[in-house]
Design brief:
By secondary structure, the protein is mainly alpha-helical. Helices cover 76% and strands 0% of the residues. It has helices at 10-35, 38-42, 46-53, 58-79, 85-106, 113-134. The radius of gyration is 17 Å and the shape is elongated. The mean pLDDT is 91.
Amino acid sequence: MSINSTKPTIAFWVISVLALLWNLIGVMAYLTRAFITDEMIATLPEPQQAEFAVVYPAWVTAAFALAVFCGALGTIALLIRKKWATNLFLISAIAAFVQHVYIFLNVEVNSFIMPVLVLLICVFLFWYTKKCADDGILN
């Protein structure tokens, strides 16, 4: 730890832990999408079955993976107070943006609430981590 580091506030820890939970949910969503079987899909309600029927190009799937895994790693870096968390959140935000642009342009979306929320949280986490780095909370 640097001698010039600033002690994090309670808000920092609350935001960091909530961000970790959020990003772990994203990782689980990716792993579910990657490893779900046809038999498992058949047991879901029809609206959810339709979501799994959409076949995405490999680059969209890669953007999804990059977004969630960089987000999760960025959160871990934030919790251990490392400046490189900012770079991980930037990559995560760009990847999520790329993924969602494709979805908005090519997939019938029933609600824009969750996709927009994902993008807003990505941008917030990048901004917040950059602010923490600038404030000396991260080394």
